[in-house]
Amino acid sequence: MVSATLSSFLFLLYYIMTTQVQKRKFNPEKGWEIKDRVYILTQNRSPISWTIQSKHTLRKPLFWFDENTGENKEIRYATNQKSLFVSDQEGYVTLGHVIFLDGVLEVPRQQQALQKLLSIYHPQAGTLWEEIDEVAEASDEIEDLELELEALNLVKTLDIEHLEAIMRTELGSTVTDLSSKELKRDAYRFAQSDPKLFIELSKDEDIKLRNLANRAVELGILNLTDDNTVFKLANGKKVMTVPFDQHPYGALAAYFKTDEGVDLMKSIMKKIS
After folding, report:
1. Contact assessment for residue 233 and residue 222, using Cβ atoms and an 8 Å cutoff
2. pLDDT of 233-261, one tens digit each?
3. Which of 6, 115, 150, 162 is deepest in the core (most CB within 10 A)?
4. Residue 15's pLDDT is what?
């Protein structure tokens, strides 16, 4: 009775240990999907013809390291073999050539060995070439388009003063020479070419204040000394000293938010309007 119980316990222990080992077994093809695949050479290379190494030789070794067995397996791509590994191939072998044309190689779903060579087992996979993930590309494209749409909608909804403040970062003082139509057109172009930056600038709390500071100087309401260190009123009265290592117009924008600066800001806005 004791012997039978011990045997059952040992069998159960062996089963548990075996199951745990199987669970930890590395499977490089886990999640593999049978489908048509397209591969392109990396770094935007597109030579007329480009052949990759597809078999192991003494002069040019081609191995895949098996994590489960701890051995290097010789790779040999053959069109009449299911396996890519020499040790698993049987009978006559028809060697296959792998050639990219104009930097692209389309591999149909029926050629599973070639797909797995290019996606999983070849040591240069992902380095010299990569698979085009159409779903991921579509997702990225949607994200880019939605970002662009958000930026374009901002151009449509923001007031002209806000657009002027944003465009000043791109056009500088020439922005004041534009008509409202020209300004909006250029804002649409900016939003389309760099939507992320446009959105970031639109959310900048101080951008309108910096624009006001620029306009005040352009109109002669305020003067900035040649060394960019002091703002003065037109009558020569000192307004503020620019702190060390700060941009003068950024510093003046910050000053506008102080108790002393609010009155000056309101006065400038009144004169500009």
Report:
1. yes
2. 999 999 999 999 899 999 999 999 998 88
3. 115
4. 60
Residue 135 clears pLDDT 90, i.e. is over it: no
pLDDT at 21: 45
Beta bridge partners of 100: 50
Mean of pLDDT over the chain: 90
Residue-wise pLDDT tens digits, 208-226: 999 999 999 999 999 999 9
Q: How far apart are CA 173 and CA 168, in angstroms?
A: 7
Planar angle of CA 37, 39, 41, nearest 5 degrees? 180
Token code pair at residue 90: 């049987």
Contact 35, 107 (CB under 8 A): no
The amino acid sitting at 136 is A
Cα–Cα nearest to 250, from 240, 264, 260: 240
In angstroms, how far is CA 167 from the centroid of its own chain? 25
Pick from 167, 205, 168: which is nearest to 184 by CA? 167
Tokens representing residue 20 in the block = 């745990």
Calculate the CA 177 to chain-centre distance.
36
3-class DSSP string for the chain: CHHHHHHHHHHHHHHHHHHHHHHHCCCCCCCCCCCCEEEEECCCCCCCEEEECCECCCCCCCEEEECCCCEEEEEECECCCCCCEHHHCCCCCCECCEEEECCEEEECCCCHHHHHHHHHHCCCECCCEEECCHHHHHHHHHHHHHHHHHHHHHHHHCCHHHHHHHHHHHHHHHHHHCCHHHHHHHHHHHHHHCHHHHHHHHCCCCHHHHHHHHHHHHCCCEEECCCCCEEEECCCCEEEECCCCCCHHHHHHHHHCCHHHHHHHHHHHHHHC
